[in-house]
Amino acid sequence: MKANEIMKKRNDLLAQTVIKGLESRNMSGYYAESKEDALNLALQLIPEGSKITKGGSMSVEQIGLLDAVKNGNYEFCDRDAAVDKHAAELFAYDADVFLGSVNAITNDGVLINIDGNSNRVSAYAYGPKKLVLIVGMNKVAVDVDAAMKRARNEAATKNAQRFELNTPCKKTGACFNCKSMDTICCQFLITRFERHKDRVHVILVNEDLGF
Questions:
Q1: Does 210 fall in a domain?
Q2: Which backbone phi and psi does 132 adopt, to 5 degrees?
Q3: Could you list the residue range(s) of the whole structural domain that residue 61 is in?
Q4: What is the rounded CA–CA span in Å between residue 50 and residue 48?
Q5: Quick one: which H or E segment has residue 205?
Q6: pTM for the complete prediction?
Q7: Looking at the DSSP assignment, which residues form a beta bridge with residue 190?
Q8: What is the pLDDT of residues 5-39, one digit of tens each?
Q9: What's the number of CA atoms in the CB half-sphere (13 Å) around residue 102?
């Protein structure tokens, strides 16, 4: 069996474990074999005419979802293009759908997110009627401790490099638990349960997506 076939089989099986974990936490999980399948699944979850916005997420862009909502029959608030970014961020709390990803997810469905500006994690916790999260299987970790280490030492460091921030991790590739003014590790959100049924939808993708 070839390496890519072994990885696919592993991801197929692991995804079902994660989905069961999500369901036990009152969240919905799905598994997509490809980016194209993930895009189709996501669009099925978003009614036409929905008010939509997003947090910072490469995964949403990588599967083509950002272009689809920009060009579709939706009311999309593009924070990146907004003149008043604060107003665009506040739009999220009354949105029908908020698009994003996670920094890590555990085998049993706990979501881990770290944020600098905190608009993303605050919207994950409360506000938008529905979250549609696109998550590559590269972000699955065995438990909360491993997920937090992944979020801090992989996701955060790569994002610091992507945004050219003045942090120790940008220069070394490892977390220093810094208090730099540029740190993006300001707020940590652990989502272990969702009280509102049908609010959180996690699409796992058999791809390496985002950081």
A1: no
A2: -120, 110
A3: 3-205
A4: 5
A5: strand 200-205
A6: 0.94
A7: 112
A8: 888 899 999 999 999 999 999 999 999 999 999 99
A9: 32
